[in-house]
Amino acid sequence: MYCLVINSGSSSIKFQIVDPASAATDEPLASGLVEQIGEPSGAITVTINGEKSREELEIADHTVGLKRAFELLDANGVGPTQLEFFAVGHRVVHGGKLFSEPVLIDAQIESMIEDLIPLAPLHNPANLDGIRVAREILPDLPHVAVFDTAFFNHMPPAAALYAINNEVASEHDIRRYGFHGTSHEFVSQQVPKVLGRDPEHTRQITLHLGNGASAAAVHNGRAMDTSMGLTPLAGLVMGTRTGDIDPGIIFHLAREAKMSVDEIDTLLNKKSGVKGLAGVNDFRALREMIEQDNSDAWLAYNIYIHQLRRFIGAYMIILGRVDAISFTAGVGENDVEVRADALADLELYGIKIDPERNAQRSSDPRVISTDDSTVKVLVVPTNEELAIAQKAAVLTQA
């Protein structure tokens, strides 16, 4: 039996057909992307058993896009009318304080997700669109919401709360929620398996480094701290986001540059980070610029690494003892130099990367530290879709 996993964005829908019993590195049976929803020219790309096909058409809304995607799957024998699905799993970015576990979706849950839109105005509305469309098209299947913030819901109060007025924080639900939780949880569960350790006695730092980036401190399977906060803007330097900055910069820009709240929001979320410093946010392009001695690219890279090392150091102190540090997501899994530079000159702390192991390319989880490294360093490919399918299977007892 299979799970249909849906990740709905404002103008796109990603989906996969996943067997929850698959290995972490297995390819899904089918996957697809509906893009440019609401634009004059859209497209649907479907990949089945490694074979890719693409159809260009106008996609008026999410309903049109998802229905057509299902028709293409049906035409290839892997759609809802041919395969036996046990559930539809939905990625939902923000669960607020309400959701710390996956839930079966009904009208009340939809309403609760809608109530959380002020905390994630760019993400939850799109996630909700995907839920409503899929429930309409596939009404006889259980639909499961899996929340990005859930893994961090029970962090210690010292890590979760900000030092601002209690009444204001309580009234407006201000706290550190964290994001990429499905990825951090999945990777942190894989690490003990790779190392042959008891997960209940493993302290680790997980580094999800993609265009969005976050770090987490995980103590015996539980999140103790994370770099993102009320929103995904906080923490590490990212592709287009600033990461942590002095909040006074916002007031300064409003007063001195006469920028509006929306202009500052756009600046910090979409025009900053590596892109704001170097003009590109793809690390492959950044690497090419560095090799050409571009000073802006080199500065952007150094700021990125400096901030990453700050969080690694902080989490080493918070955990007290670190058994493993793992890299995941696009940059973490593929950029050899980022991994080496992030953990350079830390032999005193028992961290030693093996250059040959680090340079190897593989889709499998692997150790890249030396045999005598006290702290094991790993590359662990993330698989959020598989994680969502597995959580849906547990909830529906499939």
UniProtKB/TrEMBL annotation:
Source organism superkingdom: Bacteria
The record's free-text note on cofactor binding: Mg(2+). Can also accept Mn(2+).
Gene Ontology cellular component list: cytoplasm
Keyword Transferase: yes
Annotated localization: Cytoplasm
Catalytic activities: acetate + ATP = acetyl phosphate + ADP
InterPro entries attached to this UniProt entry: Ac/propionate_kinase (IPR004372), Aliphatic_acid_kin_short-chain (IPR000890), Aliphatic_acid_kinase_CS (IPR023865), ATPase_NBD (IPR043129)
Keywords carried by this UniProt record: ATP-binding, Cytoplasm, Kinase, Magnesium, Metal-binding, Nucleotide-binding, Transferase
GO biological process, one term: acetate metabolic process
Binding positions for ATP per the UniProt entry: K14, H208, L209, G210, N211, G212, D282, F283, R284, G330, V331, G332, E333, N334
Residues engaged in binding substrate: R91
Pfam families listed in its UniProt record: Acetate_kinase
Gene3D superfamilies noted in UniProt: 3.30.420.40
Pathway terms, separated by semicolons: Metabolic intermediate biosynthesis; acetyl-CoA biosynthesis; acetyl-CoA from acetate: step 1/2
GO molecular function: acetate kinase activity; ATP binding; magnesium ion binding
Binding site residues for Mg(2+): N7, E384
Assembly notes: Homodimer.
Cross-referenced PANTHER family: ACETATE KINASE (PTHR21060), ACETATE KINASE-RELATED (PTHR21060:SF15)
Family per similarity comment: Belongs to the acetokinase family.
Protein purpose: Catalyzes the formation of acetyl phosphate from acetate and ATP. Can also catalyze the reverse reaction.
Protein name from the UniProt record: Acetate kinase
This protein's encoding gene: ackA
